[in-house]
Amino acid sequence: MPSAVIADMVYDEDTQTLSVWFRPSGRRYDYLEVPAVEYDALRHSPSKGRYFNAHIRDSYPFTQSDRDEPRAPLQPGNRLP
Questions:
Q1: Which residues pair with residue 9 across a beta bridge?
Q2: Which of 44, 54, 60, 69 is deepest in the core (most CB within 10 A)?
Q3: H or E, element range at 48
Q4: In this structure, are residues 53 and 45 in contact, taking their beta carbons and an 8 Å threshold?
Q5: In this structure, are residues 56 and 42 in contact, taking their beta carbons and an 8 Å threshold?
Q6: What residues pair up with 51 in beta bridges, in sequence order?
Q7: Residue 81's pLDDT is what?
Q8: Nearest Cα to 49, choosing from 58, 40, 57?
Q9: Helix 36-44 crosses helix 48-55 at what angle (to 10 degrees)?
Q10: Would you say 52 and 5 are in contact if contact means Cβ atoms under 8 Å apart?
């Protein structure tokens, strides 16, 4: 189910980095040290925004990237459904 808050997300299992692009700003935040199980739960949540706010936003360190920075290459199955 698409999200009203999250435009897209990509997870890098090797570095445990979750990259999230937000609506409407288009800004990307990279959340570090996110376990794969947490990403899977977010991906399958009926409300991505609620899950993100409750379980990820204040739970993991993050960095903010520039708005105009291109998106990371997407791997099959990693894109927001």
A1: 20
A2: 60
A3: helix 48-55
A4: no
A5: yes
A6: none
A7: 41
A8: 57
A9: 150
A10: yes
List Cβ neighbours of 14 (8 Å cut-off, separation of 6 or more).
none
Write down the pLDDT at residue 3. 84
Q: Tell me the C-alpha to C-alpha distance, in Å, between residue 20 and each of 10, 43.
A: 7, 12
Q: How far is CA 70 from the centre of its chain?
A: 15
**What's the predicted TM-score (pTM) here?**
0.79
Residue 60 in tokens: 């993991």
What is d(CA 68, CA 26) in angstroms, rounded to the nearest whole number?
8
Say how many Å lie between the first and final Cα of the chain, rounded: 6
Would you write out the chain's pLDDT as a tens digit for each of its 81 residues?
568 889 999 999 999 999 999 988 889 999 999 999 999 999 999 999 999 999 999 999 999 986 555 455 444 444 444
